[in-house]
Amino acid sequence: MTATADPVKLMKQEVGKAAANLVKSGSIVGLGTGSTTAFTIQFLGDRIKSGELKDIVGIPTSFQSEVLAKQYGVPLTTLDAIDHIDIAIDGADEVDPSKNLIKGGGAAHTREKVVDYLANQFIVVVDSGKLVSRLGETFAVPVEIIPMAITPAMQAITKLGGKPEIRMGVKKAGPVITDQGNMVVDVRFDNISDPDNLEKTLNNIPGVLENGIFVNCVDKVLIGEVKDNKPLVREM
Ligand SMILES: O=C(CO)[C@H](O)[C@H](O)COP(=O)(O)O
């Protein structure tokens, strides 16, 4: 793979590669979604092709990661065929100092939460622009809702103090539809002081399938940075 001049892409590439290097032969690997984990999947494929990495199987968290795994030669399985996941590698939209996350920028947070929470080790890969002092600082909370419940669920979210907006498609008329056939509402909150409680409260609204707040589940965050035009990876 050739290095790129775009600093954010360079950070994503370095951190994606660093995470792929943590995977050991014989592992069952959760494959995250997004532009950062796309590099991880690509580097896993490179390690398999070179013979350095043997007997791994991936569990995709989205149609996107499934397609990439097939493209780069990473064998896949399903949750029905395995009894554990050794390591999951996934991106995030925000990371707070306690390693809590907002995810779902790619509308894949429901499957991501299933896979990432099952893993014995959950590694998050981000560029340094994703670090925040408090969740909700820059990113809205994605909430996946079944279509017939969209109106009452949005009303309930508004009563909680959130400002919900249906996520609209790009190069597609109408709303984004998830891999499960649902809609996503992006919810702005003025202040998320208790992410643990907000995660549970949102999921208690009838019709809500899952939201993008991930609390107390991350083992390690790999952060990509660029210093003096050189990419670096540090750990949190
Ligand atoms: O949660 C996600 C998808 O639902 C992604 O992991 C998150 O949006 C980060 O994406 P990227 O690596 O492209 O910045």
UniProtKB/TrEMBL annotation:
NCBIfam families per record: PRK00702.1 (NF001924), rpiA (TIGR00021)
Keywords: Isomerase
Coiled-coil features, chain-numbered ranges: none
Active-site residue numbers: 112
Listed HAMAP family: Rib_5P_isom_A
Organism: Calothrix parasitica NIES-267
One of the record's GO molecular function terms: ribose-5-phosphate isomerase activity
Record's subunit section: Homodimer.
Known EC number: 5.3.1.6
Record protein name field: Ribose-5-phosphate isomerase A
A Pfam family matched in the record: Rib_5-P_isom_A
Entry keyword Transit peptide: no
GO CC terms: cytosol
Biochemical pathway: Carbohydrate degradation; pentose phosphate pathway; D-ribose 5-phosphate from D-ribulose 5-phosphate (non-oxidative stage): step 1/1
Organism classification: Bacteria, Bacillati, Cyanobacteriota, Cyanophyceae, Nostocales
